[in-house]
Amino acid sequence: MELTRFGLWIGRSLGREHHGEAARLAEELGFGALWLGGSPRLARLRPMLEASERIVIASGIVNLWAYDPPELAREFAELEADFPGRVLLGLGIGHPEATALYERPLTKTRSFLDGIAASDHPVPRERMALAALGPRMLDLSAERTLGTHPYFTPPAHTRFARERLGPGALVAPEQAVVIDRGDRAAAHEVAREYAEFYLRLTNYTTNLRRFGYDDRAITDAAPSLVDELVPQGSAAEVALAIRAHLEAGADHVCVQTLQAAGGDGVPAEEWRALAAALLG
Predict the structure, then answer these.
(1) β-pairing, 56-59 with 33-36?
(2) How many CA atoms lie within 13 A of 89 on its CB side?
(3) Which terminus of the chain, N or C, has less C-beta within 10 A?
């Protein structure tokens, strides 16, 4: 499985009817992976696999509270049988704000991975990645999976993850960006609205505090914080921010392009501009 240095990341805002088109375009442009966010069921990866030939299709992330381990392992095995070597199973514990069952995240994750290993269709460790933020979950990602796929993190976290995990584990952060079409204020507003949602989630805010951001910056969605987490600018400018993760030790960066409300369909213009800046 070759992720290459850059992939694309799509979330709930892109309708399922566009997923096949997205996979074809991402592959055509030369990106190594397409990540489907929004805690997807694995069956939702199939249209993207069917519409493409070689690009890796990854889940970013499957929520552990939404599956029983044997069920998830069986669904992975079904995709693997039809599309060998092309599926990467991104897993994560989610957020306490999202489920009343949330407790002992490290214990739950270990137990879930044990369940996959003991199932009739165990998933190879090199075909899974954990959405790890804190030190102990990062350690578990290297111990039991290919590595980590962190979300909503600055390059400082990428550097921390690489130093913690050493050279052998995958570090594949997500990076949201806004490609500016000439209105910097509008681009920053898109970035701010996106960041404000995640700045209400405890796991992310706890992680940001590890890297020096204080309560006021987080509560107020300070412009400096927003600009670091969601860079805005031309494709060439945001490419520099994306490459900062590589310089910090990432193997692969999953790029999410944000659009103003009302944006519909595959963001082909943004993806083509990114491909020229990153791959061309």
Answers:
(1) parallel
(2) 29
(3) C
Place of tokens 């509008």: 186
b (16+ CB within 10 A) / e for 206-217: ebbeeeebeeeb
Question: Is 226 domain-assigned?
Answer: no
* Helix (DSSP H) and strand (DSSP E) numbers for the chain: 12, 11
Tens digits of per-residue pLDDT, 41-91?
999 999 999 999 999 999 999 999 999 999 999 999 999 999 999 999 999
253: left (phi over 0), alpha (psi -120 to 50) or beta: beta
Q: Of all helices (H) and strands (E), which one includes residue 136?
A: helix 135-144
- The first and second tokens of residue 257, run together, are 């392009």
Residue numbers of the domain that contains 30: 6-176+234-278
Which CATH number is 61's domain given? 3.20.20.30
SS3 state of residue 244: helix
Token code pair at residue 235: 């494709």
What's the rounded Cα separation, in Å, for the pair 238 and 217?
22
Distance CA 235, CA 216 (A): 30
Residue 194 located in a structural domain: no
CA distance 74 to 176: 32
Mapped onto helix, strand or coil, the DSSP state of residue 104 is: coil
- For residue 221, tell me if it sits in a domain: no
Count the domains in the chain.
1
Find out whether 78 and 66 touch, Cβ atoms under 8 Å: no
* Token pair for 60: 């970013």
- Note the Cα 68 to chain centre separation in Å: 22
Answer whether residue 159 is part of any domain.
yes
